[in-house]
Every structure is written in structure tokens, then in C-alpha cells.
């Protein structure tokens, strides 16, 4: 596990995971996803209508650069429409990133960390955005 005194430069990027219920709150998630793409240069991940990886519920991922944290995360705090949001850094230590260095908005869910390595075999690279923002946060 990384030391608590390590430099912030170890954070390559962030992931926000937006959880939803396919039958009841996917439309809310779709609206939130569209708003994120209109406001921020991010990479919007695929829809996962069932649990995938360590995530216990349906979700989509938003990958973003470190310089967006100060605007994107507060925007999510105010605009998540009751959805659960999980945000973690990417530091090349996936298990610790998800377990020790994350933040939750809404209910805290139990993740299955058994499949996450302590150290990533391939470091997370820079985020390649797939959005073209038209508005501002």
C-alpha cells in the first residue's frame, strides 16, 4: 500500500463511477451522463447494466484528468440527482486506490476488491477524452 505521505503527482487521473438501477434510474443516469459530456472534457465509459469488476451495481465510468477534480467533483456533488457516485484516483495501486483513497457520494457500497492487483501491470495512461464540451461547469 502506498505511504500516506506520497506526493500528489502520483495521481495520474481519476475515475468516477456513477451507479444506477437499470429499471428505475437509468434515465436519470443518462441525463447526468449527457450533462457531464456537455460540460467537461472527459472519457465517458460504456454502460454496464449489471455488476462488472469490483462494482456491485450497474454503472458507467467517467475518466478525467487531475486538473478537472476541483470543478467536476463539486459539480457531481450538486447534480448527481440522488445517484450513488464513487470517485477514486489512479496511482498504479488499484486496490489501494479503490479501498483507501476513494470518496463516496450517497450510499457506500461494498466493492469486491479480490480481482484488483496491489500494483497495476500496466500503469494508467493519460485520459483520452471522447466528449466535446459546449457549456461550462
Describe this structure in words.
The protein is globular and about 40 Å long. The model has no long low-confidence stretch (mean pLDDT 92). It starts with 12 loop residues before the first strand and ends in a 32-residue tail after the last strand. The protein is of the alpha+beta class and 137 residues long. It has three helices and five strands. 23% of the residues lie in helices and 22% in strands. It has one domain (11-110): DOPA-like domains (Alpha-Beta Plaits, 2-Layer Sandwich).
Q: Layout of SSEs?
A:
Elements (H helix, E strand, L loop, with lengths): L12 E7 L6 H14 L3 E6 L10 E7 L3 H11 L4 E7 L3 H6 L3 E3 L32
Antiparallel strand pairs: 1-3, 1-4, 2-3, 4-5
Question: Could you give a short description of this structure?
Answer:
23% of the residues lie in helices and 22% in strands. The N and C termini lie far apart (34 Å).
Q: Tell me about the biggest sheet?
A: 5 strands, antiparallel
Uncertain stretches = none
User: What is CATH's topology name?
Assistant: Alpha-Beta Plaits
Shape: globular
What number of domains? 1
CATH superfamily membership: DOPA-like domains
CATH level-two architecture? 2-Layer Sandwich
Mean pLDDT: 92
How many beta-strand elements? Answer: 5
Please report the first level of CATH classification, the CATH class.
Answer: Alpha Beta
Keywords:
137 residues, 23% helix, alpha+beta
Amino acid at each position: 500500500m502506498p505511504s500516506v505521505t506520497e506526493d500528489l503527482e502520483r495521481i495520474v487521473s481519476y475515475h468516477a463511477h456513477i451507479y444506477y438501477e437499470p429499471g428505475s434510474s437509468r434515465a436519470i443516469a443518462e441525463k447526468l451522463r449527457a450533462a457531464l459530456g456537455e460540460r467537461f472534457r472527459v472519457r465517458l465509459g460504456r454502460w454496464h447494466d449489471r455488476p462488472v469488476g469490483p462494482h456491485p451495481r450497474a454503472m458507467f465510468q467517467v475518466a478525467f484528468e487531475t486538473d478537472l477534480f476541483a470543478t467536476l467533483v463539486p459539480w457531481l456533488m450538486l447534480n448527481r440527482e440522488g445517484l450513488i457516485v464513487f470517485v477514486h484516483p489512479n496511482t498504479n495501486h488499484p486496490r489501494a486506490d479503490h479501498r483507501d483513497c476513494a470518496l463516496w457520494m450517497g450510499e457506500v457500497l461494498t466493492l469486491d476488491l479480490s480481482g484488483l492487483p496491489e500494483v497495476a501491470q500496466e500503469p494508467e495512461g493519460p485520459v483520452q477524452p471522447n466528449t466535446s464540451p459546449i457549456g461550462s461547469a
